[in-house]
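In response to the reviewer comment on reproducibility (Comment 2.3), we provide here a single inverse folding case reported in full, input and output, so that an independent group could reproduce the run without further information from us. The structure tokens appear first.
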């Protein structure tokens, strides 16, 4: 799966923080029109600030890059290439931090299919472990679906990561089941191991996408968008109250009418 640029449209993404009047430029990103995904993500823990983004300046395609600050964003360390995937297209990174630990997830198609990868730092972002692949519950290839919005084409995929104590949670959506579904993977040992991936939506007659995740102690909350084959669309919600071990039934949050399963 390759990114397609729309001719004549150029976007420059610059992330800056200020010391007096002098900005710190972490990275410039200049290329063709982008897919529907944030290019830059930030997380914080104490006086530490962590920034992750994708760039094609270190590779013919794209890599996931990272920089850390230990002084509340006044200065940043040298960038680190987290993906090391010169033959793949790495993008859609997300980041979370807790204490000295930093967690990063992203998508990469170096296997020929878009897969989800995870890496962790236990020393405030100085070093990271080798990326591990988080598997979907499906076995089919990941096939891109493109939608036309107001100004361009966008791919339906995103990764999210969150943490609470020793628990680490990752969610995304893909179509390896033969339909677009919401996937969830969890670790209860600080990401040393991950439990089997769970299909949260499991909706063969609907397209599930655009998942959001919030964590509060042992409670996990997910919301996403579903589009039925008959054209009916709307948000749905699902919760877990035991660190993602079990889940409540899916609730459809219809704008009109009762809330139901």
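Designed residues, in position order:
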């Amino acid at each position: 799966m390759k990114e397609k640029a729309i001719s004549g449209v150029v976007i420059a993404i610059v992330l800056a923080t200020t010391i007096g009047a002098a900005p710190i430029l972490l990275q410039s990103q200049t290329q063709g029109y982008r897919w529907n995904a944030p290019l830059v993500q930030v997380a914080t823990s104490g006086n530490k600030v962590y920034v992750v983004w994708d760039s094609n300046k270190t590779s013919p395609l794209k890599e996931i890059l990272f920089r850390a600050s230990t002084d509340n964003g006044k200065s940043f360390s040298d960038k680190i290439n987290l993906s090391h995937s010169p033959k793949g297209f790495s993008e859609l990174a997300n980041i979370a931090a807790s204490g000295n630990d930093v967690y990063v997830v992203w998508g990469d198609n170096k296997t020929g299919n878009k897969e989800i990868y995870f890496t962790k730092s236990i020393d405030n972002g100085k070093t990271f472990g080798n990326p591990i692949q988080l598997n979907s519950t499906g076995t089919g290839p990941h096939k891109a679906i493109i939608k036309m919005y107001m100004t361009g084409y966008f791919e339906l995929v995103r990764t999210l990561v969150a943490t609470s104590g020793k628990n680490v949670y990752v969610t995304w959506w893909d179509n390896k089941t033969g339909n677009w579904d919401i996937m969830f993977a969890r670790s209860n040992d600080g990401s040393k191991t991950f439990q089997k991936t769970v299909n949260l939506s499991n909706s063969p007659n609907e397209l599930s996408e655009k998942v959001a995740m919030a964590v509060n102690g042992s409670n996990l909350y997910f919301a996403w968008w579903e589009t039925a084959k008959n054209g009916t669309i709307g948000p749905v919600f699902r919760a877990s109250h035991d660190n993602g071990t079990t889940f409540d039934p899916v609730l459809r949050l219809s704008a009109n009418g009762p809330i139901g399963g």
